[in-house]
Amino acid sequence: MKKVTVKIISLCMVLLVSLSAQAFVQTQSDTATAKRPNVIVIMTDDQGNNLGYLGNPYLKTPNIDQLAAQSIRMTNFHQENKCTTSRAALMTGKDSFRTGAWRTSKGRSTMRAEEVTLAEMFQGAGYKTGHFGKWHLGEAWPTRPIDQGFAESVQLKTGGIGQIADYWNNDYIDDTYYHNGVAKPYKGYCTDVFFDEAMRYIKEVKDQPFFIYLAPNVAHVPFIVDEKYSKPFEEAGLVKKQAVFYGMIQNLDDNFGRLDAFLKEQGLSENTIIVYTTDDGASGTSFIGKGKDDHVTKGWNMNMRGGKGSRFEGGHRVFANIKYPQSGLTGDNNTLTAIKDVYPTLLDIAGISYPDGVKLDGRSFAPYLKTALDPQDDERPIYINYYNPKRWDSRKDASVIYKNWRLTSATELYDIDSDWSQVNDIAKLHPELVKKLNSGYDAWDKKAQQLVRTDIVRFVLGDKQHREIIMTGQDHWTNNGCNPFRQDSARGLVKCNGPLKVKFINSGKYSFTLSRYPLYTAIPFSTSFKERTTEPLDNYFAAQNARLKVGEQQLEKIISGDDNQVTFTMNIDKGEMDIQSWISGQLLDTKGSSNKGEHKVAPAYFVTVNYLSE
User: Fold this and answer.
1) Domain termination site, one of 307, 339, 371
2) Dist. CA 61–CA 38, nearest whole Å
């Protein structure tokens, strides 16, 4: 059972900021009871530091720049360098490897349901809670936003539009998202929709304190935006993809303007804290050229080395702005902070006690908002590694952030104060420091390795209130090779396959429905090799056979005609086991004759399980 403890907020207390402070408590002297601050956390996707006020020579972002001017700007803030990992750390205050969600696919992007999320903490304190946009921490009960503390959710499934769990054929405009778990079509551009829905919910609950997680999917691939936003950048000489990338951010800036005007109109601006950041360094599209060892060779990247996913500064050091009107604080703050620190910081500001019995990895930076902690006086290291099942022991992607030092790949050392672009490796000049940082990393890595190698977050099957669970190829548990995480994987019959890790919590009769496409599309197994193409078809897949393995049980069925699904029924004993599926058939040419006799075997990219009876 998750526990949430609320700290009693005394009357007429003043804002307290001190090094010894456990919490910030805010009240208004002219009211009978303390008015708790509203909180909006905005996390964009793959944006990096592409903002006007940060020096991007192409972008003008007046609304975001205004927000930054009114904010405490955390200028030494670090994400975990990938989408899922940073979002898991935000929601739990932990290093992502302790949450189960430490990779973007291959069955490792689902956060453990037992985690006590930031939303659950605010909800337990009497806040109304809403999520709008990307989640990427679980697509099925009990790991969806509405299962993890959010009373309201308009969710983009999986890591981005066009990925396999996303609603089929979404394309950024007039798409279908999941409103409280139910598919619903929306009109308009994706970012506009998520801001619209956030404001709609705020208006509904504004008489009570609210916590909002607004997570637009820009500027993640695919790069799509109205031409009115991208054309000025093309006219300025930028290549098409880069122009669209910047156009997506320009649209985002417009939405920040709308949100600001809305909060003022609703009388909420002065009592609403806004935290704004992005989940990792910029995707390569934003700067086009990246040469040897992640040095940017063309374009703008704030003169940092590396982009999204990199161990270098450009992979994880991003802006983080906190508009905190009640504090009266603004300006740059160079305290060394990380995404996992946001959780305890927001709880402190709101006067909410930490969850009972939960060990947080993050450290509240609330005491340092008024007077920054000089990194040179800070003994806390921050460790980052994007673990890869293909090379568990690799230190290639590892970083140690300590004071002004950056240790990468265990062997390279940089002084970030004098070498912002990480050009001069000075490890040989500081062997004792390298030894010290590696020793600390090794202890951290040992704990991480124990979990990432063996810890499994399984789909929960057989709950009487949630009888149907849909699983996709994104969650095939694989250590090597590829993973069918895009919709094009199903269209192109990508062969990548692996088991789905599940736990049956009740014994009984279950049905297992295999399909190549989501069942709501009714697209048959035997369809064109890439059914969306407008070009003449070269290949046609004629499905013939379906095979399913659940634990030690295996069944097969013939597929014929226009079948779009095949269903197996089994009696299952409760317990943990694997599910794996195979669809096989002939690859034909457009005339229906065998194409070099090729026999094609692929997974069922969608597996729908229903608990029928005990």
Assistant:
1) 339
2) 25
In terms of residue numbers, what domain contains 113? 38-339
**Residue 415 sits in the same domain as residue 323:** no
Q: Does a structural domain hold residue 590?
A: yes
Amino acid making up residue 309:
G
Token couple for 337: 């902070």
Question: What's the rounded Cα separation, in Å, for the pair 265 and 272?
Answer: 13
pLDDT value of residue 108: 96
Give the amino acid at 136: H
Q: What is the dihedral of CA 61, 44, 68, 334, to 10 degrees?
A: -130
Helix (H, G, I), strand (E, B) or coil at 284: helix
Q: What is the per-residue pLDDT across 523-571, written as a single tens digit (0 to 9) for each? A: 999 876 555 544 445 567 889 999 999 999 999 999 987 899 999 999 9
Same domain? 122 vs 91? yes
Shared domain for 449 and 477, answered yes or no, is: no
The rounded distance, in Å, linking the Cα atoms of 338 and 97 is 15
Residue 458 token pair:
């399984």
Residue 364 within a domain = no
Taking the CA atoms of 524, 525, 527 and 530 in sequence, report the sign of the dihedral they define. Answer: positive
Q: β-strand 128-134 against 210-215: which pairing, if any?
A: parallel
Nearest to 527 by CA among 517, 513, 535, 519: 517
Return d(Cα 184, Cα 161) in angstroms, integer.
Answer: 15
Give Cα separations from 245 to 151, 173, 219, 227 (angstroms): 32, 16, 6, 11
DSSP element (H, E) containing 338: strand 337-338
Angle, vertex CA 250, rays to CA 246 and CA 255, nearest 5 = 145
CA dihedral 27, 29, 30, 33 (to 10 degrees): 50
Q: Does position 404 have pLDDT exceeding 60, yes or no? A: yes
State the Cα torsion 455-100-111-120 to the nearest 10°: 100
d(CA 341, CA 77): 10
Considering the domain architecture, whether residues 136 and 278 belong to the same structural domain is answered as yes
- Pick from 310, 339, 368: which residue ends a domain? 339
**Residue 492 counted as domain residue:** yes
- Catalogue the E-assigned strands of 507-552: 508-515, 540-550
Q: What is the CATH number of the domain that holds 229?
A: 3.40.720.10
Task: State yes or no: cis peptide before 536, omega within 30 of 0.
Answer: no
Residues 412 and 493 in one domain: no
For helices 190-205 and 240-265, angle between their N-to-C axes, nearest 10 degrees: 10
Regarding whether 545 and 442 lie in a shared domain, the answer is: no
Residue 67 lies in a domain: yes
In angstroms, rounded to a whole number, what is the distance separating the alpha carbons of residues 56 and 117? 34
CATH number for 511: 2.60.120
Q: Provide the pLDDT for residue 379.
A: 98
Single out the residue of 513, 500, 508 nearest to residue 459, CA to CA: 500
Helix spans in 351-486 (H):
431-454
> What is the rounded CA–CA span in Å between residue 337 and residue 76?
6
* 3-state secondary structure (DSSP) of residue 231: helix
Instruction: Give yes or no: residues 230 and 98 share one domain.
Output: yes
Tell me, what's the pLDDT at 348? 98
b (16+ CB within 10 A) / e for 380-419: ebbbbbbbebeeeeebebbbbbbbbbbbbebebbbbbeeb
Predicted model pTM: 0.93
**Span 131-181, pLDDT tens digits:** 999 999 999 999 999 999 999 999 999 999 999 999 999 999 999 999 999
Based on the fold, state whether residues 233 and 322 are members of the same structural domain. Answer: yes
Number of separate domains in the chain: 3
